[in-house]
């Protein structure tokens, strides 16, 4: 798919904070290098490679020679699921001090995701190609107190200026996490696909945005052919309520058989433009906000 001149202008410098390039236990349509090469089609400045199961900084370090001559940068991060030891401040420390940009709290290992999982699989959610044990990773101890490791992770995120993402936590847990993180000095906080799995209400999203949390919506969920499709009116409602100042558009793509991120960004940006969203507002959500969050300037 080729963008119109207007859409090409909007997407120039795009930063995707949520790309599922491979390798990983889930089958992926492309690897990190191929994703970067494809990103050049629209002048993508950068993306963050996200794996639910491992620290992707090490992938990128190992493949650094393969990125020579490619203008799209790729950054890594870590998701605090079972496979990295859950809420493991030591794994976070290594990831961020080696250049990682985002720490996601539990996704597949969150209590909320596990509750949602059977319905998600029935709807076509991807399955791991290898058997993996999943048990809930909780942010509270048996007495209901916030685990000390949560604070340790927040401290490393604050120290390095990285992004703290709420993962797939329950809304109550996510709200508490962001409050504690802000108290510890974390300045960059994000909630991914707030209306999917985590099921934040718009009112909760607005409240978090007022406290500095960005709502990240995934263009892959607003494609008519996608099995997790939401109508564009849902996205427009969230943008109107939260404001472009605290909204980010990312892809959440890379799964086998789904649209590539570049094409999804073209399609959804075109649709939003056709629905009256201003060019400057689209650039704020696609370029300026994620550039700030990843501290690229």
Summary keywords:
297 residues, alpha/beta, TIM Barrel, six-stranded parallel beta sheet, three-stranded parallel beta sheet, 11 helices, globular
Q: How would you sum up this structure, described in words?
A:
This is DUF6282 family protein. It holds the Pfam family DUF6282. It comes from Pseudonocardia zijingensis. The protein has 297 residues and is α/β, with parallel strands linked by helices. The protein has a single domain, classed as Metal-dependent hydrolases (TIM Barrel). It has 11 helices and 9 strands. The chain has helices at residues 5-11, 32-39, 56-62, 89-97, 111-122, 148-160, 171-183, 202-210, 232-242, 261-274, 279-293, and strands at residues 15-19, 46-49, 73-75, 77-79, 102-104, 163-165, 188-192, 213-218, 247-250. The strands form 2 sheets. The chain has a 6-stranded parallel β-sheet. A 3-stranded parallel β-sheet has the order 1-2-3. The two termini are 30 Å apart.
CATH class (first level) name? Alpha Beta
Biggest beta sheet attributes = 6 strands, parallel
CATH topology: TIM Barrel
Number of helices: 11
Stretches where pLDDT falls below 50 for ≥5 residues?
none
Compute the number of structural domains. Answer: 1
What's the architecture, going by CATH?
Alpha-Beta Barrel
Q: What share of the residues does DSSP label as strand, in percent? A: 5-15%
The total of beta strands comes to 9
Mean pLDDT: 94
**Distance linking N and C termini:** 30 Å
The helix/strand class is alpha/beta
